[in-house]
Task: inverse folding
């Protein structure tokens, strides 16, 4: 992470940005975030990110009345300039500073906004994928919400890395493919592109939405064995872009499908 951040629309050192220890964000992880890719010093798909942030805030009752798209766009541009970003990533996090229903106190700020920046995530040239033992609950009130309550995802990713993999596919309670821990997933079979439907509980990623607008793709419910039959598997997110998987559960994918990656990335 870079030294300078934007906290409540003020540039400061990352070490000096803090939220109340008694806030709902600190006590319960009540907050939402999004990671935005930066290309040529410009935030990519910012409109989609903002719409998702607003929708997520409404779903879990976070007050964004003090914020609007134009103000946050200006804050984004400022921190991109201060940290001299060209190709990087930016995370916007809204913390609910209001008191919770269990522990009450007087809050001075309803919602705080932290904008942090970093370089693009490094991706292994031989990206290996496994199946996570931890399921996603498609009926959870947080299904499809990019909330700060992210420990389940972190634990699933760390478990996969301990076994020597780069990422893991998570299933829901019905055994359907949902996503990777930190990315959406796509695959091709006989030249046709597929991705899990939102019914599975997957996050409606902005890169996922962008691809669905640009390329013919079927949103389906499928089990983990489907990926072993696939010709190629891809992960997508703002942090990693679009990458092709090299191996899934000892199933290795041929390099001839790299042209699919180049085709998608050229859009």
Result:
């Amino acid at each position: 992470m870079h030294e300078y951040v934007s906290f409540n629309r003020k540039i400061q050192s990352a070490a000096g940005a803090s939220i109340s220890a008694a806030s709902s964000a600190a006590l319960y992880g009540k907050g939402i975030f999004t990671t935005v890719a930066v290309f040529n010093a410009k935030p990519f798909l910012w409109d989609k990110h903002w719409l998702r942030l607003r929708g997520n805030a409404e779903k879990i009752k976070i007050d964004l009345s003090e914020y609007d798209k134009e103000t946050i766009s200006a804050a984004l541009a400022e921190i991109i300039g201060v940290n001299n970003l060209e190709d990087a990533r930016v995370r916007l996090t809204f913390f609910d500073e209001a008191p919770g229903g269990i522990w009450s106190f007087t809050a001075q700020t309803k919602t705080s906004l932290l904008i942090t920046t970093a370089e693009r995530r490094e991706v292994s040239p031989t990206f290996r994928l496994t199946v996570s033992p931890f399921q996603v609950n498609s009926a959870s009130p947080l299904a499809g919400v990019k909330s700060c309550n992210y420990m389940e995802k972190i634990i699933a990713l760390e478990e996969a890395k301990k076994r020597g993999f780069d990422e893991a596919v998570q299933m829901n309670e019905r055994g359907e493919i949902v996503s990777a821990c930190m990315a959406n997933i796509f695959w091709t079979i006989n030249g046709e592109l597929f991705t899990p439907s939102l019914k599975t509980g997957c996050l409606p990623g902005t890169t996922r939405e962008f691809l669905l607008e640009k390329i013919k793709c079927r949103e389906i419910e499928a089990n983990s064995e489907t990926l072993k039959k696939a010709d190629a598997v891809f992960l997508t997110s703002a942090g990693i872009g679009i990458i092709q998987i090299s191996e899934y559960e000892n199933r290795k994918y041929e390099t001839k499908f790299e042209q699919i990656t180049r085709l998608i990335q050229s859009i």
